[in-house]
Structure formats: structure tokens, C-alpha cells
Specification:
This protein is an alpha/beta fold. It contains nine helices and eight strands.
């Protein structure tokens, strides 16, 4: 790396935490509630990063403008909130990354499109070795990702310039937002990539096969 990284910012779903089991549970309970068969987990996981709209699309094959879409989405969110951290955990290896940040006194934060009424209870319950210093949810700012505003807001709150913040995410909008904010970016290939995603075309600065790959970046700039 040619520059010092003084802060790490993470997307939440599919990057910091493996939320797919609890979101899949919420979708399948919603499908059953509306008289449909549950879906296999591997059919649900790829769309988890894209929120409730994507989950209802996948489960019911309907669009937001279709009758009954919003009722199903609200039911899904209600089930999810009541079960928000039953099986959700940090991705394997992420606890070591966070503990290393703590030891080296490097601040870290969350920038997610998940609304605060879901982000805050999840972050409060999620077992982790240290707590984040900033959380920017999908409704914290006027715009959400891929707009750079949430990332710039996190940078401002931490008083660390964007070029010295690394943003880690598993979706194209994450990389687009990071680049637009003037931050180096890392693509979490272990996250919730969809079948037609082409992460090699997103032009992230780094490709992460596993969370531990971040340790090399941290140690390079903070030996």
C-alpha cells in the first residue's frame, strides 16, 4: 500500500456479519405465513445484502408495485426484528481482524443501507471483541449507497480523511460508494455475491477471499 490506512469501515450484511441465516429464517416464515413453500438456504443467501425488497422478490417472484408486496415485506421485517441475532455471527476470522484493530488502536465503523431500527439492535446483540466507533445506517443520511454521502459522514465523524479510510463491502454499490468518496476499497468475496455478479469488474483496490486477508493490509501500514 502506498498510503496509511488509519480506519476501516465495513458494510454490515455479508461483510462484517453473516446475517443470512436469520434473514433466510424470516423469509421462509413469511412464505409459510402466506401459504408458500420455504426456499432452500442457497437460493436465499445471494440476495441477502440487497435487503427486504430483494428477499420478497426472490421468495414470491413479485415486484414492489404488485398487490401484496408491501404486506409481505412488512411481515418479513417483523419476523426478522424478533429474531435478529439468533444465528447471526461475525464471519469466521473477523473477530481476529477486529481484535487486531483494537490492539493497534485503529478505529473502525459500519456503513450499511440497513435502517437504524434494524442495525442498532443487531449491533447491540452481536458478539464481537470490541465495539465500533461509528455506525452509519441507511437512514442516517439523506442518501444511501451507492451515493458516497454515508461514507463521507463516517469519515467526518471519525475525523479521518477519506483517503485514509478503507471501505470493505460485498456488493457493487459498496465499491462504487467507496470510490466516489475517495476511499480505497476492498471487495469481500466471502460475502453474498449473486450469480451474475462480476466483482473483478468493480475495480476494488483489494479482493478478499477471507476476512484474515485484511490482517496483511493492517500490518503493512501499522507494523
Amino acid at each position: 500500500m502506498n498510503q496509511t490506512i488509519d480506519c476501516l469501515l465495513f458494510d454490515l450484511d455479508g461483510t462484517l456479519a453473516d446475517t443470512a441465516p436469520d434473514l433466510a429464517h424470516a423469509l421462509n416464515r413469511t412464505l409459510e405465513h402466506f401459504g408458500c413453500k420455504p426456499l432452500p438456504f442457497d437460493k436465499i443467501r445471494p440476495v441477502v445484502s440487497h435487503g427486504g425488497i430483494a428477499l420478497i422478490r426472490r421468495g414470491f417472484d413479485i415486484e414492489p408495485e404488485d398487490e401484496g408486496f408491501e404486506e409481505r415485506r412488512q411481515h418479513l421485517l417483523d419476523v426478522y426484528l424478533k429474531n435478529i441475532c439468533r444465528h447471526t455471527r461475525l464471519f469466521p476470522g473477523m473477530d481476529e481482524v477486529l481484535d487486531t484493530l483494537r490492539q493497534k488502536d485503529i478505529p473502525w465503523g459500519i456503513v450499511t443501507n440497513k435502517p437504524a431500527w434494524l442495525t442498532d439492535p443487531l449491533m447491540a446483540e452481536l458478539p464481537m471483541p470490541c465495539r465500533t466507533e461509528v455506525i452509519i445506517s441507511g437512514d442516517t443520511c439523506e442518501h444511501n449507497k451507492p451515493h458516497p454521502q454515508p461514507l463521507l459522514c463516517a469519515s467526518e465523524r471519525l475525523a479521518i480523511p477519506p483517503p485514509r479510510c478503507l471501505y470493505v463491502g460485498d456488493a457493487q454499490r459498496d465499491i462504487e460508494a467507496g470510490k466516489a468518496a475517495g476511499m480505497p476499497t476492498a471487495c469481500a468475496l466471502f460475502g453474498y455475491l449473486q450469480e451474475d455478479d462480476r466483482p473483478e469488474e468493480w475495480q476494488a483496490d483489494y479482493q478478499l477471499q477471507q476476512p484474515e486477508d485484511l490482517l496483511n493490509l493492517i500490518h503493512q501500514t501499522h507494523p
